[in-house]
Amino acid sequence: MGLVVQKYGGSSVADAEGIKRVAKRIVEAKKNGNDVVVVVSAMGDTTDELIDLAEQVSPMPAGRELDMLLTAGERISMALLAMAIKNLGHKAQSFTGSQAGVITDSVHNKARIIDVTPGRIRTALDEGNIAIVAGFQGVSQDKKDITTLGRGGSDTTAVALAAALDAEVCEIYTDVDGVFTADPRVVKKARKIDWISFEDMLELASSGSKVLLHRCVEYARRYNIPIHVRSSFSGLQGTWVSSEPIEQGDKKVEQAIISGVAHDTSEAKITVVGVPDKPGEAASIFRTIADAEINIDMVVQNVSAASTGLTDISFTLPKTEGRKAIDALEKNRAGIGFDSLRYDDQIGKISLVGAGMKTNPGVTADFFTALSDAGVNIELISTSEIRISVVTRKDDVPEAVRAVHTAFGLDSDSDEAVVYGGTGR
């Protein structure tokens, strides 16, 4: 008997019918001889609705109380799903994140998992139960406060439980049939990927692909937990994410030269204008940003003007952190010595990802040629061994993604990509 961890997103349990459909799939896995642990997200748009409600009551809700509010969504889902499974004649117990032993640090709204002690889950499984766990939440190690893990937290919960329970696989059920070569909402001819390495998936996730979040994939890579991304709306095989290629029939699936094209329109760009071009200035800027607990993505520094000895430094960051970053830099303007700040939230990032890029000459040239032919202007460039990313205007992103996707022969012969629930997640 194996142990399988399954995770179901909000679109899969959006209503009573969805919950009953998911319950049947879970029971089927149990009938196949598996111990089953299920991690569930809040129903549909419940989390967004709770956030809106909190902001109507308080423009800046306290982090601790916001976490107490938001975790209610997953608790509703887990209880209803347990009821549906029991109605099918099987035993089930539901657990909050803290009851499941998900221990985190004390950072509210974006806590990180420190440890998982799933003693109660193991007991429930030994008693023949299907264990249902509320995703996205845990309990802080020091104060024992309820915490939430931030965006994609339920995926991370599932992988963390799979690692702690030594599961054979972590199945991530969503509303698309797997990981595609591009967002199927933007590229109708996107192809489903049968297998992708942890490294390529990490690059896609960090570049804007929303099927799996970066923290989830990083956790799976660290503990070597295979992930199977598939749809809860169909019975099709999905995408395997693992360290080694899977076998289909008598041969292994080969790694593609290009894994896919990702895009992200959730970032903004800040340009620090008139920075003295001398050692330590960039360090002062990014120390200020780090002290404000803000993550940055791409960075570029212009060549300084010979007449003034001043330069401009631009970087991208999440739009949600834009105001905080501007305030932090303005507060330290005298210490840094810059002239002014420019803020731009109408940008988008397009990334080409593939482990085969480093051994195939011409990939970079083809990428920029495709963007040029589509009339797309480039503002920033960032590269790694398996990724090329550029920043352009937000309005140019859909056309740019489609142009690059076609240029690298990623289009399928038919409109294969289906988003069953409408979100692609």
Secondary-structure map with pairings?
Layout lengths: L2 E6 L7 H16 L3 E6 L5 H12 L5 H25 L4 E4 L6 E3 L8 E4 L2 H8 L3 E5 L2 E4 L5 E3 L4 H12 L4 E6 L20 E3 H9 L7 H10 L3 E5 L7 E4 L4 E2 L2 E2 L7 E5 L2 E10 L4 H11 L7 E3 L8 E9 L3 H10 L1 H4 L3 E5 L2 E7 L9 H11 L6 E5 L2 E7 L3 H11 L18
Parallel strand pairs: 1-2, 1-9, 2-6, 3-6, 4-7, 9-11, 10-12
Antiparallel strand pairs: 4-5, 7-8, 11-12, 13-14, 15-20, 16-18, 16-19, 17-18, 20-22, 21-22
Helix pairs in contact: 1-3, 2-3, 5-7, 6-7, 11-12
Question: Can you describe what's shown?
Answer:
An 8-stranded mixed sheet has the order 3-6-2-1-9-11-12-10, sandwiched between helices. The chain contains 12 helices and 22 strands. The protein has helices spanning 16-31, 46-57, 63-87, 119-126, 153-164, 198-206, 214-223, 281-291, 322-331, 333-336, 363-373, 397-407; strands at 3-8, 35-40, 92-95, 102-104, 113-116, 130-134, 137-140, 146-148, 169-174, 195-197, 227-231, 239-242, 247-248, 251-252, 260-264, 267-276, 299-301, 310-318, 340-344, 347-353, 380-384, 387-393. 33% of the residues lie in helices and 25% in strands. It is globular. It has a domain at 3-252: Carbamate kinase (3-Layer(aba) Sandwich). The two termini are 30 Å apart. It has 425 residues and is an alpha/beta fold. The model has no long low-confidence stretch (mean pLDDT 91). α1 crosses α3 (63-87) and α11 (363-373) packs across α12. InterPro entries: AceGlu_kinase-like_sf (IPR036393), ACT-like_dom_sf (IPR045865), ACT_Aspartokinase (IPR054352), ACT_dom (IPR002912), AKii-LysC-BS (IPR041740), Asp/Glu/Uridylate_kinase (IPR001048), Asp_kin_monofn (IPR005260), Asp_kinase (IPR001341). This is Aspartokinase.
